[in-house]
Design goal:
Pfam families: PP2C_2 (PF13672). By secondary structure, the protein is an alpha+beta fold. About 30% of the residues lie in helices and about 25% in strands. The model has no long low-confidence stretch (mean pLDDT about 95). Bound molecules: zinc ion.
Length: about 270
Amino acid sequence: MGSMAFRMLAWSEPGDPRVENEDFVATSADVAVVLDGVTPLDRDDTGCQHGVAWYARTLGTYLLQLAGDRRDSLADCLATAIRRVRDDHAGTCDLDHFDSPAATVSAVRVRDGRLEYLVLSDASVVLDLESDGTKPDIRWITDHRASEVGRRLRAAGIPPTGHAVRTHRNRAGGYWVAAERPEAAYQALGGSVPVAEVRRAVIASDGATRLIDVFGLFDWTDALDLIEHEGVDAYVARTRAVEKEDAARPSASRVNRGKTHDDTTLVFLTRWT
Ligand SMILES: [Zn+2]
């Protein structure tokens, strides 16, 4: 077993405190996972009696456990975790339903002196790497294939409704999330960097990257500085304030076209020095 390479600080909160948080976060000494249960188009029509929060929690728990064994690659661990959840509810639920429960996944693991990462769908892993000092070396790993499906539909004159986009889920040429097909795990973006080169890192659900990718108010260096120096709570509070301000504008001038507030989950890692 290696020694702990990073401090980890996890934060998760629902977009609306009256609604169950469908994100899931878990950490162990050398692993962190963040899952974001995909909001169904119709909660009463998913083919599943368990729900999205259950899906994210169950998949995330398996993934944490399998990754902690350190034998298999993160992609293999995710494939096995997807298979296990599928087997857990294949007998009771219709997993062929086009909108059966699904989740985006981001994960990191320290193994053999390297920080391994995996991102499936629009979750993020952000690495702040040692640089020569002239400018920061930030690597932002996220998968835009779902929004590309929307763009392609629009270009073809098809309204990119939730339903139209979702029929491209987990299909070649479409986009990939964790759902009923284990092979989705091998569509994840993955890689590794030496632990010694990582100054800080964030793994996050898409609700925790809005200041950067929806509102464009921050770059990742500013965001990481805010998290490190003022706290994860200050970073999330800032997200909520900006969302609220945007929602108060007339709809034509709003930046955010999605939910006003989304479930917001991140793990912040800093290397022990
Ligand atoms: Zn189910």
